[in-house]
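Reopening this ticket.

The earlier resolution said the output was attached, but the attachment link was broken on my side. Pasting everything inline this time so it's all in one place.
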Amino acid sequence: MIAFVKYFRGYVRIRVMGFSPERFMNLCCNKGIVLWNIERKDDAYEMNIHLKAFLTLRPIVRKTGTRVAVLQRYGFPFFLPKMLKRKVFLVGLLLAIVFWLYSSVYIWDIRVEGNYRITDDVFGDFLVNNHVVIGMKKSELDIESLEKAIRKQFPEITWASARLDGTKLRVEIKENDAPILNEEEYHEPGSNLVSEYKGKIVSMIVRSGIPKAGVGDAVEEGEILVQGEIPIYNDDTTVRGYYYVDSDADIVLEHIISFSEKLPFDYVEKEYTGRQKKKNYIRFGKKEWNMSENRPYLVYDSVIKESRPLLFEKLSIPIYFGGCRYREYRNVEHEYTPEQAEAVLNEKLYIFLESLEEKGVQILEKDVKINSDTDCWVIYGEFLVHEKIGKSIAVEKTVIEETEQE
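Inline output:
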């Protein structure tokens, strides 16, 4: 605070030379003149003194026979005259102050926090429909009405709060954390397990249902392995009815999986020509200026870099400066060499085998071949695997007609 007062009042650094500079300092002290940062330099002294006190030194200098030289000037009284000469700077400063004051009465940024189930796009559309948009005046915003509208529009929101933070509108919401319970549809039991592939059963553990096949049996695709329809017999071994269950079992089938992929002989690769163009633009919200809409080249890549000045970021004003660089390229056809084709096809085979491992499929044997066809490379493979199977299909229920006994 003291330093600010000294700067506002203004002070100078002086050098006192002559017969008795010590007497000069004593007389200044007697008259209440403050001196600070006193340093001895050879036969002279350097010190700081307030501007107003400096103007009263003439009698003391004459009385002590010393000489005083001004070394440097500090403070607002010296800064202001210099600034008054710089008219362009003053005009820019005034325009910046006017712009800051004018922009502070608008909302330039809207932040929504706490939304997890409700997407930003859905909430943004809601705000637009309620006339809450970027660029609106703060005085036009009714925060209480906005909070009520949020709770009314979204029943899953249990708490909503809106507040202005400078030129930024912050909307904080809290969604209902309780799980949404849906009424489960009634499921009537009764399902079979069928085979998805053709092969041989190597392992089978049945927990529910009647097994229709056993270990070592060869089965066809779609064949019933476990039946969920359990007959109920009379004393005379006739079927009185059926009891239905959902079949459940762990079944491992040994079967063959085939894999094939094709790769054309030719492929297209980008080659940049070295020609490029750059366009700068200014974006305010969703509006852009100086962004070229014409195609600079027939085929090209575009790289956009955008920045936001710190002043506008602090004021939450959506003004962005950016540049777009266009790089021309041409599509050049190349032909795969046998080594390249083999590497690409093996990569596809590796991805396929990884997918099998993720499903828990155990590979016992494999036979893979890569050949060239009339217009492409072909990879073909057969794999002998052990895989868990069992597709659940609803049972077609049997209706037993009752006959009257005479």
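Reporter confirms the inline version is readable. The two ends are 118 Å apart (CA to CA). The mean pLDDT is 86.
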